[in-house]
Design brief:
Length: about 140
């Protein structure tokens, strides 16, 4: 295995680990780390790429967006709120760095605009209708 593929492999596992943590920790976003994992695995190995795309973590968080379909409103809101909270903390920590705050503000506005207008909103997946309910239609 070449050094380049090994670096991509390490990047994939790092993204996967942080993405898995982000799926269970409310303040750590899973989405960007899963994108990094998809990129790293895609560049390192076809086998790992297929494996990663078959995981529940990928299917539930990234598959629709990667296929160009979009994201549910709930997923978009979750990502925007998480990133906003993290960027607000960074903004507060940069009280003495005006340029950093300006850059962070532009990145935040770009992030919100991208998710509002650049990512298609998919309808929420609903539970299947219950078949046991009587139809009640006499005709």
């Amino acid at each position: 295995m070449s050094l380049r593929k090994l670096c991509y492999l390490m990047l994939g596992f790092l993204g996967l680990g942080l993405g898995a943590l982000g799926a269970v920790l409310p303040l750590l976003p899973a989405f960007p780390f899963l994108l990094v994992a998809a990129y790293g695995f895609g560049k390192s190995s076809d086998r790992l790429d297929r494996w990663f795309k078959g995981t529940r973590l990928y299917r539930e968080n990234l598959a629709d967006l990667a296929a160009g379909r979009g994201m549910t409103r709930r997923a978009k809101i979750r990502i925007m709120v998480t990133v906003t909270l993290l960027m607000a903390a960074a903004f507060a920590a940069m009280h003495a760095v005006a340029v950093g705050r300006i850059v962070l503000a532009f990145v935040w506005v770009g992030h919100v605009l991208y998710f509002l207008f650049g990512v298609k909103t998919l309808p929420e997946v609903s539970a299947p209708a219950r078949e046991s309910a009587p139809s009640g239609d006499p005709s």
